[in-house]
Amino acid sequence: EANRKLGGKKVVITAGGTVERIDPVRYISNDSSGKMGFALARAAKEMGAEVTLIAARTDEAPPGDIRVVRVQSADDMYQAVSAEWDDCDILIKAAAVADYRPRERAETKIKKAGDTMTLELVKTVDILESFGQRKTSQLLVGFAAETGNAEMYARDKLVRKNLDLIVANDVGQPGAGFGVDTNIVSIYDRSGLVEELPLLSKDEVARRILSAAGDRLKEEGR
Ligand code: PMT
C-alpha cells in the first residue's frame, strides 16, 4: 500500500561499496552490490520523501526519479553526506565503507618487482561516527554487517556512534547480506529490539526500516 509516512521529509541514503585506489588500475573494495541502499531509496521515495542517494560502486541501475550523487572513496562519501547534512531529516548508511585505505595512491601503475609487496593502510574517516557527534535534529540509522554476534556488535555501534537506530545484518546467513535480493535483519534502538524480521526481499526490508524511522520521528515530534 502506498503510504506517505515520509511526506515532506528529506532522506539521505548511502549505498554500495567504497573504492579506495591503490593506483590508476587497482583498488580495494568489498562485496556490496548497492541493492540494499537502492531499495531504501526507492522505498523512501514511495513513502513521499525527498530522497538523495549517495552511491559508491554498484551495478544497480540508477532510479530515474531519484537524485543520485556518485562517489568513490570513504572520503568522497563523507564530503557528499556533509553537503546534504544540514536539512537532512533521516540519514541511513547502508553503504559498506572501507575502514582502511592505502596510505599512498600511486600516480602511475605500480610495476611488478620483488617477490613480496607491502601495502600500508591507514584508517578512513568513520562517517557515521562523525555525524553522530554533529547530530542536531537528524535521525541517524546505521547498519552493522556482522558474521556472528550481530546483536552485540550492532548495539555497541549504536551507542558508540550515537545512532538512533541500527540495522543488524548477520551476513553469514544464506539469503542475507551482500549481493542478494533478500535480507534478514533486526532493528535495534537504545532500549533494545524494535523489530526482528524474517527473510524478506530487500524492498520489503527497506519499507520496514523506513517505517521504523518514520515512527521514531513522529514519536519525538520532529
Ligand atoms: O549492498 P548489498 O549487496 O545489497 O548488501 C547490503 C549490505 C550487507 C552492504 C548492507 O545491508 C549493510 O550491512 N551495510 C553496512 C556494511 C558495513 O560497512 O557495515 P559495518 O558494520 O562495517 O559498518 C557499520 C556502519 O558504519 C555502516 O552503516 C557503515 O555505513 C558505517 N561506516 C563504516 C565505516 C566508515 N568508515 N564509515 C561509516 O560510516
From TrEMBL:
GO terms for cellular component: phosphopantothenoylcysteine decarboxylase complex. Its EC number is 4.1.1.36, 6.3.2.5. CTP binds at residues 99, 109, 143, 157, 161. It catalyses: (R)-4'-phosphopantothenate + L-cysteine + CTP = N-[(R)-4-phosphopantothenoyl]-L-cysteine + CMP + diphosphate + H(+); N-[(R)-4-phosphopantothenoyl]-L-cysteine + H(+) = (R)-4'-phosphopantetheine + CO2. Binds 1 FMN per subunit. Residues 7-212 form the DNA/pantothenate metabolism flavoprotein C-terminal domain. Residues 11-222 are annotated as: Phosphopantothenate--cysteine ligase. The keyword Flavoprotein applies. GO terms for molecular function: FMN binding; metal ion binding; phosphopantothenate--cysteine ligase activity; phosphopantothenoylcysteine decarboxylase activity. Coiled coil: none annotated. Pathway: Cofactor biosynthesis; coenzyme A biosynthesis; CoA from (R)-pantothenate: step 3/5; Cofactor biosynthesis; coenzyme A biosynthesis; CoA from (R)-pantothenate: step 2/5. Its cofactor is Mg(2+); FMN. Catalyzes two steps in the biosynthesis of coenzyme A. In the first step cysteine is conjugated to 4'-phosphopantothenate to form 4-phosphopantothenoylcysteine, in the latter compound is decarboxylated to form 4'-phosphopantotheine. Catalyzes two sequential steps in the biosynthesis of coenzyme A. In the first step cysteine is conjugated to 4'-phosphopantothenate to form 4-phosphopantothenoylcysteine. In the second step the latter compound is decarboxylated to form 4'-phosphopantotheine. In the C-terminal section; belongs to the PPC synthetase family. This is Coenzyme A biosynthesis bifunctional protein CoaBC. It comes from Paenibacillus stellifer. The lineage of its organism: Bacteria, Bacillati, Bacillota, Bacilli, Bacillales.
